[in-house]
Amino acid sequence: MREDTEEGLQLKHTLGLRLGLGVRMQGIRPELLLALMILLDLCRETSTIVIVTAILNGAHMRNSLHYTGAAVDFVIDLAVERVPWVTELRDRLGVTYDVLDEGDHIHIEYQPHFGAGT
After folding, report:
1. Cα Rg of the chain (Å, integer)
2. How do residues 3-17 score in pLDDT, each as one tens digit?
3. CB neighbours (10 Å) of residue 68?
4. Alpha carbon distance 44, 1 (integer Å)
5. Residue 100: Cβ-neighbour burial (10 angstroms; 0-12, 13-18, 19+)
6. What is the largest CA-CA distance in the chain?
7. What is the pLDDT of the chain when averaged over all its residues?
8. In sequence order, which residues have a C-beta less than 8 Å from that of residue 66 and are 6 or more positions away?
9. Which helix or strand (DSSP H or E) is residue 72 part of?
10. For the chain, is the Cβ count within 10 Å smaller at the N or the C terminus?
């Protein structure tokens, strides 16, 4: 994003979390809503633009957690240092969430891992 353009200046003043066209949120799990709130806080703290591209919409693998409202896909501002940003998000969300950098998008899913030590 170039700040010296009118579009860049507009985006700079609307930092945070935005929903892409066609993103469906009706029916998401409360745990995913919490993840989105944590994601929004990180966006604001790091001056990052995030666009949610899929929650309950889109084509996913047959057993995808998107279909139960427990997963979200999003893209981030290309100017962000991706690896440390994703690491920070992963740390904030904790062990009950998986945060996967899929290359063209980032995927969060609520998936508590039960077993030894839990």
Report:
1. 15
2. 444 444 444 445 577
3. 15
4. 16
5. middle
6. 54
7. 81
8. 54, 55, 56, 58, 60, 72, 73
9. strand 71-76
10. C
Strand (E) or helix (H) holding 35: helix 30-46
66 near 60, Cβ under 8 Å? yes
Which amino acid belongs to residue 86?
V
Name all contacts of 89-92 with Cβ < 8 Å and 24+ positions apart: 89/38, 89/39, 89/42, 92/38, 92/41, 92/42
What are the two backbone dihedrals, phi and then psi, of residue 55, each rounded to the nearest 5 degrees?
-130, -85
Q: Contact, 83 vs 38, CB < 8 A?
A: no
**N-terminal to C-terminal alpha carbon distance within the chain:** 43
Residue ranges of the chain with pLDDT lower than 70?
A: 1-15, 114-118
